[in-house]
Amino acid sequence: MYGITDVRALARQGKLAGGDEVKKRVLELPITLQDILDVAADNKEALEGNFGQQGYKMYGSAIQSAGVELEKDALGMGNTSAQVVAFDDEHSENELVYAITVSE
Fold it and tell me: How many domains does the chain have?
């Protein structure tokens, strides 16, 4: 979950390519993990600049794994996809982060 938190933090700081459109895409909910992966792929240089090449790969793998698990859960319940509908990370430096996902 913290990989998503860090991508969202960079969006808040205006460090992702695509300006306000990408910021809005990452911060507005609901969002799929695929959307976050797409933004991360489009911003590889910014993410590597903040987390290093290994950190970038680690976050991408972690977000992708979470997405695969959520999608498997959604399909197991007869649904087609899972979305993050709540994500409390604005104070992630001092507080725990939580997310709520739903299946459609």
Answer: 1
The residue range of the domain holding 18 is: 2-103
Question: So what's the pLDDT on residue 4?
Answer: 82
44 backbone dihedrals φ, ψ, rounded to 5°: -55, -45
Residue 7's pLDDT is 87
Residue 31: DSSP 8-state: B
CA distances from 80 to 28, 33, 85, 89 (A): 21, 14, 16, 27
- Please indicate whether residue 100 or residue 47 has the higher confidence score (pLDDT): 47
Please say whether the beta carbons of 26 and 36 come within 8 A. yes
d(CA 76, CA 4): 24
pLDDT, tens digit, 9 for 90 and up, residues 17-61:
999 999 999 999 998 877 888 888 888 888 888 888 888 888 778
Measure CA 92 to chain center.
Answer: 14
H-type alpha helices, the chain:
2-12, 19-27, 33-42, 44-76
